[in-house]
Amino acid sequence: MRIGTWNVEYAAGAAKNAARLLRLRDARADLWVLTETHDDLDLGPTHTAVRSEQRPTGRAGARWVTIWSAFPVVRSVATRDPVRTTAAIVDAPRCPLLVYGTVMPWHTDPGPTGGARNWVEHHRVVPEQAREWLELRDAHPGIAMCVAGDFNMDLGGRHYYGTTAGRAALVEGLRAVELVCLTSTDRVPAGRLSHAPIDHVCVSAGIAEDASVVEAWDGSVEGVRLSDHSGLVVACP
Fold it and tell me: Under a CB-based contact definition with an 8 Å cutoff, are residues 216 and 193 in contact?
């Protein structure tokens, strides 16, 4: 099973979307959690979409998150913030898998009031989402979980982006729900990325054994900027 995530910078431009789609197809992920995306970037018919609601800003079809699954989608799962997150249970080969896709706030995110100071929204939302992961796990006993998307922080290795408080809240949230981050800096093969990833794939400990990063690329592909984020794919044998 291959799981990937990529922030595609609003999936703007037909030519760039064609290049993005080629990069996604080449990576051969069974599950994608695309962030800052748009319905124009369409992985059908090989994958089925589970989308967050329309973003309040941006053109029609703009989404913070879309889950694309090559596995049968059993059903979508409601989340507290249906604009910033989305979730679904998919019939993965090893076991049913609850996939939760997210975009966590960035450092200047102004929040719902429009006036939040730097990192305040991040510090508010991370523990809220962590509590929701626990609730979802308890509501779906025996189902493995995957939390993936744009976390807006690096994990492990030399500091790149994020805060100590935000990172501590995330690490504790993952620990509480027994999720393993497969895309921490130390897990990415050396030389693949120009800086530490801030987009991540985390899975239940029971399916994390022997998992590894098998694809990692910068946002610019062959000199063309397709995103301001790197993309990653992990393989869970």
Answer: yes
What is the average pLDDT score of the chain? 96
- What is the rounded distance in angstroms from the CA atom of residue 78 to the CA atom of residue 27? 29
Class of residue 231 by CB neighbours under 10 A (exposed 0-12, middle 13-18, buried 19+): buried
Q: For the whole model, what pTM was predicted?
A: 0.97
User: Which phi and psi angles does 91 have, rounded to 5°?
Assistant: -90, 75
β-bridge mates for residue 202, sequence order: 147, 181
Give per-residue pLDDT as tens, 48-80.
999 999 999 889 999 999 999 999 999 999 999
Per-residue b or e along 178-201, where b marks 16 or more CB atoms closer than 10 Å to that residue's CB = ebbbbbbbebbeeeebeebbbbbb
Which of 122, 93, 87 lies closest to 105, judged by CA?
Answer: 122
Sort strands 212-217 and 231-235 into parallel, antiparallel or unpaired.
Answer: antiparallel
For residue 74, the model assigns a pLDDT of 98
108-121 per-position pLDDT tens digit: 999 988 999 999 99
For 54, which DSSP code? B
DSSP secondary structure letters along 59-107: STTEEEEEEEESS-EEEEE--S-TTTEEEEEEE-SSSEEEEEEEE---T
Could you give the 3-state DSSP secondary structure of residue 19? helix
- DSSP character for 109? -
**Is 199 in contact with 229 (CB distance < 8 Å)?**
yes
